[in-house]
Amino acid sequence: MFLTKLPAPIDIHVHLRDPGDTHKEDFYTGTSAALNGGISAVFDMPNNKTPIFTEESLREKENIAKVKAVCDYGFYFGSTGKNIEEFPKVSERVVGLKLYLDQTTGDYLIRDLASIRDVFIKWPKEKVIVIHAEAENVSLVIKLAKESGNKIHITHVTTKADLERIIEAKKMSLPVTCDVTPHHLFLTDKDAVELKGKGQVKPSLANLTDKTFLWDSLSWVDCFSSDHAPHTEEEKNSPSPPYGIPGLDTMIPLLLTAVKDGSLEMDDLIQKISTNPHKIFNIPVDKDTYTEVDLDENYELKKENLKTKCCWSPYEGWQLHGKVKSVYIRGKKVMEDGRILVEKGFGRNMML
Ligand code: NCD
Ligand code: ZN
What we know:
There is one protein chain. By secondary structure, this protein is an alpha/beta fold. It has one domain (4-340): Metal-dependent hydrolases (TIM Barrel, Alpha-Beta Barrel). The protein is 32% helix and 19% strand. It has helices at 27-36, 55-68, 87-90, 113-122, 136-148, 160-171, 182-186, 189-195, 208-216, 233-236, 251-260, 266-280; strands at residues 4-7, 10-14, 41-44, 72-78, 96-100, 129-132, 152-154, 176-180, 223-224, 290-300, 319-329, 332-336, 339-340. It has an eight-stranded parallel sheet. Strands 1-10-11-12-13 form a five-stranded antiparallel sheet, covered by helices on one side. The chain is globular and about 55 Å long. The site of N-carbamoyl-L-aspartate has 11 residues, from loops.
């Protein structure tokens, strides 16, 4: 068996639901799903039940992760524009700031221009602002970044029109980066019909033209991120399902399948899962942290092989090509063939 090494894969966009919604996921199950999927570090979003808008809520989360995480991690701070006085207290403890300009899980929108501008001015220039923006909001934040000089990162870019806006900004050398998710690369609005509640996600699954454009324009995309957003099967099958698709267990296996079928280069996968995330978030690559994969192993994705607490995947039954075999973090083997080999609390906060 020939194993290929992926250096320190980071998933820069996950929701581990701890504290507040630990019936969906917690720091142990979420970081176990990361290791199972070959990810050695996760950056966790601030839209918890009590959002991470204060130093106090950030400290609470830090203390929980410290005793539960099995992979390394970082946190985002969040803002709706009303907690700017907290920024100096937290900015060094987090990987970046997250802003929601468009509707999703949790009611944490920042919409008015004055507040967004104020946040841009007050957030440290060298630290990235990760933004959920769609359609004209993409143009708006690019314009603001141009004015203020902040580094912005547009996450889960979904449509042709939005990626075109970002490409235009990149051609002007503006400080704008972006990521795409596996569900927007592998699923469309047609799948959403079949998947019913399980296909409900923000941004919504788009059409084939959008999906094709993402694949054809991957050279403009900086990172892959899973936007791992677990909800229970019961919640997803209810009449008003919450938005979100789990993806930590499956992101690298799906991308390896794309490498095998020739739609993605291995070097490009490494750039987007490791090199660029480290650069954007200004974190050195640890040479003793890596994932080993077997590109030749062919298998069916089964529910029982997932580690996410929600325990479902839109890709159940898919034939995958390329299996995650083991993960090493800081020189220690932490996962092998789906078995977690370290105790809760092994994972470190990359910012502290
Ligand atoms: C996310 C969630 O459930 O927290 N849902 C989603 O559909 N992507 C929120 C988000 O990433 O915007
Ligand atoms: Zn998200």
